[in-house]
Amino acid sequence: MNKRLSDGFITNFLPSLDTPRLRELRLSAIGLTSSSGKLIASYLSSPRCRLHVLQCNDNSLGLRGIKPIVRAIRSQNYTLRSIELYTNQLQDEETASDSQTSSDEGQGNERIGLTRNNIQTWRRCESLLKQILLRNILLKREINKQATTLLSYARPLLLRGCRQGLIDNRAPVQLPLQSPNASRGHNVGFLTVYQSFRFKSLPLELQHYVLSFLAPSLSSLQCIRVIDYATSANTLPSFLRLFSTLSRKMHIRSGDHIARIPDPSGIESALGGIIWPAEQHRDPISSTCSTNRCMGSSGSLVCRHEKERMEFLEVVGCDTFELEPGEGTGSTREVFTLSLTRSV
């Protein structure tokens, strides 16, 4: 914490900050004023920003500096999950000299429902921030779900292998059709039974288009990245690495059962428990534990499957909701995605 840094530091630092893998940024107690509000808003709106947590406590941003930040998060940022703006001289910021604002700021205030010269505006900002962050979390959860679903179907359908085309090339077969009133073995005709739909015979573009309906909330680029990931043999997990991880690090053999290591921060460990049995007759090569918490329930340790899932989502850019070119906040796709989260 160094309040001598002030706005000059932000002026030079944020425009040059290009770290999409940065998840947390702390700018507390460094002497920021309202002049830094637009610089922070500009960074939050840029594709260079993939922050999950932003802290700007104990500064002098005031309401004038916080308003553009709220507008930027609402319209352009879907990655942020937590933001702290405490102790920023909010009560003293609204003065007579502040009553004159630019037309752009006035329009922005109207869009987010803010009125000047009223301390209730900060409470309104705080309420809006909670709604926006909740929106981001719900959208992220649904995007994650649809991306993994798309991968699970696209991989077996699109990844070329040694068995490609075996089913599609089979000719239709004719089976004897029996009358329910006829004696056993008496055929009254033949029923032509076709094998599964020849999906692979469709043009590749149509195959991708059909699969995209499994993930309607993903942007076009997100769908393309997931499909490219699914069709690459280089992204397949190594069987030996998978088996080694499951047998040595995650699970312990105990007779006919598989035991899971408890979370050391959980109550099971505090009570002296060492392991607890997993589901009987469970496949040891399965990608998930039967309870989806093979390393405990408090989340201090991350399951290997969950870690690989998060890595996949980051690689294909499906760890957050993504706007299409020319698409704005409150789009039909965004509203539709939020409706899916409410119906669960």
UniProtKB/TrEMBL annotation:
Composition-biased stretches, type Polar residues, lie in: 97-106
Ranges for region Disordered: 91-111
Q: Which InterPro entries match?
A: LRR_dom_sf
Superkingdom assignment? Eukaryota
Its protein name is: RNI-like protein
